[in-house]
What we know:
The structure holds two protein chains of two kinds.
Chain A (H helix, E strand, L loop, with lengths): L1 H24 L1 H4 L2 H27 L6 H15 L5 H23 L4 H27 L4 E2 L5 H24 L1 H11 L1 H6 L4 H27 L1 E2 L1 H4 L2 H14 L6 H16 L4 H18 L3 H19 L4
Antiparallel strand pairs in A: 1-2
Chain B lengths: L1 H7 L3 H4 L3 H9 L7 H31 L8 H18 L8 H26 L3 H27 L12 E4 L2 E4 H23 L1 H11 L1 H6 L4 H26 L7 H15 L4 H21 L4 H15 L8
Amino acid sequence: MRTHRTILKSLGGLVLLVLAMALLAGLPLYASAYTVILITSILMYIILAMSWAMFSGPTGYISLAPAAFFGVGIYTAAVLGLELPLPLVILLAGVGSFCLALLVGGLTLRLKGIYFVIFTIGLVELIKNLVLWYEVTFTGTRGRFVVPVDNNTVYHVMLTILVLLLLTAYLIRRSRFGLALQSIGEDEQAAAHVGVNVNPLKMIVFAVSAVFMGAAGAIMATRWSYVDPYIAFNPLFSFMAVLMAIFGGLGKFYGPMLGAVIIAYLEETLITRFPYYYMLIFGLVLVATILFLPGGLVGLAPKLRSWTARRERAHPGG
Amino acid sequence: MRGCLFAEWLSPVEEISTPLDSLHCDCYGREGAIVIVTILDVVIAGLLLGGLYALIAMGLSLQYGVARVLNVSHGEFIMLGGLITWTLTTQFGLNPLAALAVCGPLTFLLGYILHRTIFRRLASTAESVGVFEGNSMLASFGLMFIIQNLALVIWGPEIRGYSYLARPVNIGGALFGANRLLTLGFALVIGLIFYLYLARTRMGKAIRAAAQDRDAAALMGININYVLAICFALGAAMAGIAGMLISMSYPVNAVMGFEYTTIAIIVVVLGGLGSIPGSFIGGFLLGLVGSVVTYFQPGLALAAYYAIFILLLLIRPTGIMGR
């Protein structure tokens, strides 16, 4: 009975998702150009937040490296965009981020807690400064121009990346790898003890999550048309991914997506009108979420439900 | 375009001259200098820079070592100190040193209030130290956004500077700004006072006890929340004073904080998280490295910092003085 219901529930979710994706895929046909651009940005943030949550959600390792993988994607597009066709560029961006993440993961995932976090902050800054130094010393210019791609193509590529990401994240979550990741987050030593191959597993999932960030960076670069190391390796991308995922809530699969949609939409509407206040608001949201909403938005629903249930029990009929 | 807006944020390196840039000016431009003088140049410049690094790292080290908060908004307190000093000096005609009487207490109070409200609550709800460290760091990211953008609202993004004690002082044939010597002097004096405070006073003993074992210290009758809040506030005040000193030698603006935060983190990891002597060793070491690398390849100094930092994390994450 119980399994029946969960199957029905997940089937319903799947149908809803397919419907939503179909609606989104046809968006350029019935929506304005502005809407397409807006939704592209939101999709980008969903990709960043969900791929961050794919690794950091279950394991509890707070990675501030998304900006590094995103930036690698951006620079892949900037360097190879002229010579290679777009799909190949995006694929290479994904592969590049994968390799970097594998290297970083292999070196650092044994670092515990706060050391891992500061390592990932340092990583973004190291790559930024190296690229900057290389550009200024050898190419003589700080920035690069990226071959532009029309907005509808950017949109569709972004949507495709998101669909692949959702599929991968869902499969990992439902497989025994997901369970193993969860056990690492709860108690790494115990997980190793019951036979989870801790380090390779962490590395692979970390690297897989980086693929999508790199691919998103490559396609986003074509929309920006000009990039330099400060744009590409901006730590803000890491912070936003973390903020969105935590605000939405890591407890549920769709939590980071929810957070990304709300915050990315707020950003789009606030950034032009109140450039300083909107970052101020995000800071307040982050602090308030950590203080009062440890489960994020999705953690709020069961709390509200139990609260109303308690009230009804206390005042029956009233 | 969004990309450009983002670029304005957190990219102070290119826009305002940083300690590294002016170091670059100190070492160059005198052709035919004798090798020994050049070496002396590089070493003294490194020490001057190192004193500043040590001072900004000491506060962070205290906050992490005792209160277990990796305060990513540390640089924002430096920025506040710098901009408040700038305001008092240029708008009210005060001596920059007199700003000490404002910056120190103000940042102290701010730090105290923040710990009493945010971090204490986080500590009481977290189930383990690891969870608290993660949460408090994320909360300090939020604080970074809040303080930085409040400062942008108040002061705007403009680069602010004034001239104070800018006359050159001759040390063994090398010329250095008097304001930078003053910074080094301040760093050493504050370090010494703080060391004596920790070693000789009752409160210092309580702080050391809390750093060693929080629960045991609480059982011995130490008011632990008070001690932790004082530590956090002292760290913030050190950042504020460092900001005041920085504004004497270098231009300041509202988005300068994060770069100083990352440098402070590097120094603290280099010296060992939570060790005050470690902060000094790490600060001077990093200052020397910066000075030497700048001499050979000016663009690579920051990259060298991060490379050292990452190597260190891989080989000896506990740092030089770490346990």
